[in-house]
Design brief:
- This is tRNA (guanine-N(1)-)-methyltransferase.
- It comes from Microlunatus panaciterrae.
- Specifically methylates guanosine-37 in various tRNAs.
- The chain has 283 residues and is an alpha/beta fold.
- The protein is built from 8 helices and 9 strands.
- It folds into 2 domains: 193 residues, SPOUT methyltransferase, trefoil knot domain (Alpha/beta knot); 61 residues, Trp Operon Repressor, Chain A (Orthogonal Bundle).
- The chain is 26% helix and 15% strand.
- A 5-stranded parallel beta sheet has the order 2-1-6-5-7, with helices on both faces. Strands 3-4 form a two-stranded antiparallel ribbon.
- The longest helix is centred in the last third of the chain and has 19 residues.
- The protein starts with a strand and ends in a 20-residue tail after the last helix.
- The structure holds 6-chloroguanine.
- The site of 6-chloroguanine has 14 residues, from strand 5 and strand 7.
């Protein structure tokens, strides 16, 4: 996978060369390139922001540096101002038999269909759609991702509007809180999808078991224990010494359901949900 990350604080992305993403880079599975947005400015002060039209607090990131950055990083993208007949598929990855299973959901619009296999732009913003494990799984199969880290009060909205015509674009949020910029969020999503790239993690079975994976109905993970059997007066549950694999599996499932009910009732599959007295059932 080719991964381009654009930021005005490229040093913020340095931790990506450590640990898991670092190994994926060394092994050649990920070709990571971090870029300073100011490279695409032309004035003496390397200006990337300006005051918002319509007034208001804060600064808005100017469209020109972002436009030039995307032109350079995704050079094969079709140019929208010159309408192309018959929805071209980018030549370098256009063949149907090369497409990954995640790339062509049936509900995709005609315009989107032309972009199947095209580079994918992820714009980090608190107003984006929530990042999920399912999206991480999709991203792990992409050939070329570009992550745009916004700062200040956001990026001029025309940047995304323009990009949508030539590449697949997702505006992504990592949760309902506000960060000063998208860099920390870019670190988070990169760690989440890089470990799902085939070949990055030694034992793929460990992936299926963990929280938020599809393997266990989306339940949170059951509690785990290791030696010693007694520690500071606390015992490992007896069932785990029983050797009854069926019973152990049942106990773990029960624990996972109860933990999910307590912490994340929104994740409970419908058949495990209990009617809570007093809760509105219709609008
Ligand atoms: Cl992706 N960016 C910023 N600035 N704040 C966020 C976020 C992203 N996700 C949650 N909060």
């Amino acid at each position: 996978m080719r991964l381009d990350i654009v930021s005005i604080f490229p040093d913020y992305l340095a931790p990506l060369s450590l640990s898991l993403p670092g190994k994926a880079i060394e092994s050649g599975l990920v070709d990571l390139r971090v870029h300073d947005l100011r490279r695409w400015t032309h004035d003496r002060h390397r200006t990337v922001d300006d005051t918002p039209y319509g007034g208001g607090a804060g600064m808005v990131m100017k469209p020109e540096p972002w436009g030039e950055a995307l032109d350079e990083l995704v050079p094969d993208a079709p140019v929208p101002d010159a309408p192309v007949p018959d929805a071209p598929v980018p030549a370098q990855l256009g063949r149907d038999d090369e497409l990954q299973g995640n790339q062509a959901p049936d509900d995709r619009s005609q315009d989107d269909r032309a972009l199947v296999g095209a580079p994918r732009l992820l714009v980090m913003t608190p107003s984006g759609r929530p990042f999920t494990q399912a999206l991480a799984g999709e991203l792990a199969l992409e050939r070329h991702l570009v992550i745009a880290c916004g700062r200040y009060e956001g990026i001029d909205a025309r940047v995304v509007e323009h990009a949508r015509a030539r590449m697949r674009v997702d505006e992504i949020s990592i949760g309902d809180y506000v960060l000063n910029g998208g860099e920390a969020a870019a670190l988070v999503i990169t760690e989440a999808f890089v470990r799902l790239i085939p070949g990055v993690i030694g034992n793929p079975e460990s992936l299926a078991e963990e929280s938020h994976s599809a393997g266990h109905d989306g339940l949170l993970e059951y509690p785990v224990y290791t030696k010693p059997p007694s520690w500071r007066g606390l015992q490992v549950p007896d069932i785990l010494f029983s050797g009854h694999h069926g019973e152990i599996a049942r106990w773990r499932r029960e624990q996972a359901v109860e933990k999910t009910r307590a912490r994340r009732p929104d994740l409970l599959p419908a058949e495990l949900r209990e009617i809570i007295v007093g809760e509105a059932t219709s609008s």
